[in-house]
Amino acid sequence: MKLVCKELSEDCWELILNRLAIDDFNSLQSPSLVCKQFLSITDRLRQKLDASNRSFYSNNCEGLFRALQRFKNLREIELCDPIFGDKADVNYPIRRIASSGLDLQFLSLRRLQKPPFPKTFKKLGSTMNNLKILRCCYLKVFRNHHLVAIADALPWLEELDIQLSGFRSYYQRGFDSKSAKYIVTDVGIEVISRKLRRLRKIDITGQFGCSDRSLIALSSNCELLNEIRCSYCHVSEHGICFVLRHSQNLISLEAGRYYSLPDDSFTFENSMNFAQSLRDLRIDAFKDHDRLLGSISTAGIPLEKILIYDDSGLSFHGLSNFLCACPSLKHLQLVSIKFLNDNSVRELCRYLPNLVSIKLDFCSNITAATFFILAKKCPLLSEIELQEIKLPVGDDFDMELERNYRIISLELSHIGHLNDEFLRKIGFVCPNLQSLNVTGLNRLTKEGIGDILKCCSQIKHLIVDKTRELGIFLEQFKTRHIEIEHHFIRSV
């Protein structure tokens, strides 16, 4: 009897091709060359292009240009730092993108040696009328006139990211009139705040030439703003509180460390009540945490995410009162809180009924027992990060282990005294684990890692220290299609 071979339907081929890593440029490039049907399918699937560094070089842009011609449904393009230094003409590929006929919504320009010319932004704006998100991150010598050129060319922008590279050292040194010529300052921010009226999100992290003037301008002119990031800018409590008072749509604020002004009329106590839309807050309230947290509690803001860095000016009483008054909290990050221990974490868990993720980094007085406490006491918890915990599980640790089927992501990096037996307990407690980071745990063996991979059959992402022996051992799990990242062990 003659067998009849039926072709797969287009829906089946789409499912197959969709399994490829569509965020990898090469993953769909090859199938698109097979036939017109595959080209049609990959064109529908391919909406993001992360161009390689080589795409910048003027004599080697053909790979990028072929992709622009082949994938007509691209909505996002990311261009990274050219490896050719001063020879790279970043304007050339950007102008070709502008002339491609694509309907881009997102463009990312990262770590460029030189910013594009103002006329290049003008060309981009003349063809990309739906470009809503622009990221110009870590660009060297990015100045006010570049910023104004963006605002003139793309007045409909909704998200703008101009965070600066190397901002920590600049922030500490400060700047003078000479350095002001090579950075973004309050003057530039004031201009774009008047031109970008639809702006919803802005990131000026590390733009040390920006101060309260920038915050006041943005808050006064951009009524739709719901996210501001301004860490390592020269801002004060006055500027932050002006934003809290006047940005009624503000959802997320990241301001880093601020300074206080004497006899200032704008304080957290009399301003926080205006910020009822706020859900995400990351402020380094150095020596002032209890006052900040108290103002949030008094205002009754239903925060969902907060970062508390350093325990200066923070007491256990202030922290517990805040968590008690904020049961809406879903994401909690505590960094370098030295007074925390296993018992205090157990006490705080009473106030965390809706917690989804928690990070406890450099809290040196908690032990590995905290992991089991969190897994048992927080029923909705799905992500846990414990980093740089230096103490082993206490001798008096006695807790019946219970399974937690919600935990899918776990990072346990650089924790001393943790061994294979601890890893096996994790495998028992977290049977649905999907992502695991165990870098810096020098007592682990390949047997311990193998045990948890066998116990947790859903692990798809594993980060481990790089050793030749471990690399050979993990080959047996390659049929599981686990994404394995290796961190190289530093020699002492």
Automatic annotation (TrEMBL):
Organism: Camellia sinensis var. sinensis (China tea)
Descriptive protein name: F-box/LRR-repeat protein 15-like leucin rich repeat domain-containing protein
GO terms of biological process kind: SCF-dependent proteasomal ubiquitin-dependent protein catabolic process
Domain spans labelled F-box/LRR-repeat protein 15-like leucin rich repeat: 318-462
Pfam families (UniProt xref): DUF7885 (PF25372)
GO cellular component, as recorded: SCF ubiquitin ligase complex
Domain of life: Eukaryota
